[in-house]
From TrEMBL:
It is a lipid-anchor. One of its GO terms (molecular function) is GTPase activity. The keyword Ligase does not apply. It comes from Myotis myotis (Greater mouse-eared bat). Gene3D superfamilies: P-loop containing nucleotide triphosphate hydrolases. SUPFAM superfamilies: P-loop containing nucleoside triphosphate hydrolases (SSF52540). Keywords: GTP-binding, Lipoprotein, Nucleotide-binding, Prenylation. It is found in: Endomembrane system. SMART domains: RAB, RAS, RHO. This is RAB31, member RAS oncogene family. It comes from the Eukaryota.
Amino acid sequence: MTKTVPCGNELHKFLIWDTAGQERFHSLAPMYYRGSAAAVIVYDITKQDSFHTLKKWVKELKEHGPENIVMAIAGNKCDLSDIREVPLKDAKEYAESIGAIVVETSAKNAINIEELFQGISRQIPPLDPQENGNTGAIKLVKPTAPASRRCC
Ligand SMILES: Nc1nc2c(ncn2[C@@H]2O[C@H](COP(=O)(O)OP(=O)(O)OP(=O)(O)O)[C@@H](O)[C@H]2O)c(=O)[nH]1
């Protein structure tokens, strides 16, 4: 899946992989997060267990993920906040402690999805010109094609 996000006067094009969260697919996860610029770790605000599992994923990313990976925490199913088990305050405190972005989303009602990707976009450093195939010392023009970034 791809998503293009305006960021200042650039366009960031994200290539997005949805990794299966279940334990039996755990060993496949490094294939997705290796080389990724950002990771969105999703929990379900109506299930405390999912917030606990999220912390395990954050630990794994910190130990084995790319050094400067941008981490974003998404508390999904915010349309069901009347049956929430995870207070937003807990998620915010945890996110702050690990330097991650946090936002409550609803995939069902398309709430805060755009904001989530904009938040990530703002944290991703500009492309290294050499990585971009540009070896010149002075950048005279902004690329017209969107820069591609990976996100899992
Ligand atoms: N109310 C509500 N239901 C949702 C939302 N997002 C997903 N669901 C429902 O939650 C269930 C699980 O959704 P999935 O997308 O399969 O969840 P997942 O975490 O990606 O599952 P795995 O890929 O198997 O790890 C489905 O029945 C969805 O319709 C949401 O924002 N609000």
